[in-house]
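User: tokens in, sequence out, please.
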């Protein structure tokens, strides 16, 4: 997306907020000036009179004919006033703003809708929004990930494992016993252990560019097609052919029945997984019986 498109998308909102706080709604058209006064016409002037006055003033203050810096600024203001008053719709909006200055929000919203709504490419706005959300999403994931790592490193379990790894690499001896020449690189050891730890962190996955909203949006047609294909295959195998569930599909049904996240399921030991799958918990009667047994066991332990 071009920078100009991003500016056209962001600028209206920012300017709107500022203008509502410090300026009347009419000032968004010709700043502190009156558009009619800039062109030297009355509010009742017709289109022909406005056009004639504009050409006369623009020739007088054109930078090529009048090098005065103040005249150049006035030329820009005159051109802007003409753009507003030459169009019947925007002139009507301006006249309404003059007659109803108290309706600040309404007048300002109409102005930006007229001047930015038709100039901004909807596709550019959508891409800009996705990019912006993706950036926030990516930064938030990194923040959560780093916080999770830091929290685990502060736990006694982490420190004990790190000490055990140090002893293992030193052949059962601490750094003090082995002497300075045979000391291991503690920093490198901790980095290696941290990498191993990263694979075990639950609830905070390492950010991936492929998980960003903008990438998902681009791949949306592929994702929808893949989902439809998967559902058709499932219906054919288990709805039409009545085939027995494969281990992967039975695991999926079990996870869904128990509302177990994929990450949590991954860290279960294989015997527990197999036991849960064998119970066929995707069937309502089996699930109710299993949950009843779990509640009874929980009460018994209390």
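Assistant: Sequence out:
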């Amino acid at each position: 997306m071009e920078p100009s498109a991003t500016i056209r998308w962001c600028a209206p909102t920012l300017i709107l907020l500022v203008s509502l706080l410090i300026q009347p709604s009419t000032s968004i058209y010709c700043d502190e000036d009156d558009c009619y006064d800039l062109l030297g016409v009355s509010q009742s002037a017709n289109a022909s009179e406005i056009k004639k006055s504009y050409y006369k003033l623009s020739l007088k203050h054109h930078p090529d004919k009048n090098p005065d810096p103040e005249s150049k600024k006035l030329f820009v203001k005159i051109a802007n006033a003409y753009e507003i008053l030459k169009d019947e719709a925007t002139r009507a909006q301006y006249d309404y703003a003059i007659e109803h200055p108290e309706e600040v929000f309404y007048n300002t919203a109409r102005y930006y809708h007229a001047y930015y709504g038709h100039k901004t490419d909807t596709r550019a706005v959508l891409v800009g929004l996705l990019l912006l959300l993706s950036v926030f999403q990516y930064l938030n994931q990194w923040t959560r990930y780093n916080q999770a790592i830091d929290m685990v490193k502060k736990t006694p379990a982490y420190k004990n494992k790190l000490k055990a790894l140090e002893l293992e690499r030193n052949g059962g001896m601490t750094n003090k016993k082995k002497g300075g020449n045979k000391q291991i690189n503690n920093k490198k050891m901790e980095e290696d252990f941290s990498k191993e730890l990263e694979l075990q962190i639950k609830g905070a996955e390492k950010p991936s560019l492929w998980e960003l909203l903008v990438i998902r949006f681009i791949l949306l047609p592929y994702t929808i097609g893949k989902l439809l294909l998967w559902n058709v295959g499932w219906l054919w195998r288990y709805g039409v052919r009545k085939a027995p569930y494969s281990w992967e599909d039975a695991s999926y049904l079990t996870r869904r029945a128990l509302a177990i996240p994929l990450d949590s399921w991954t860290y279960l030991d294989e015997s527990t997984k197999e036991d849960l799958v064998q119970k066929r918990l995707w069937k309502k009667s089996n699930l109710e019986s299993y949950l009843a047994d779990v509640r009874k066991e929980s009460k018994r332990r209390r």
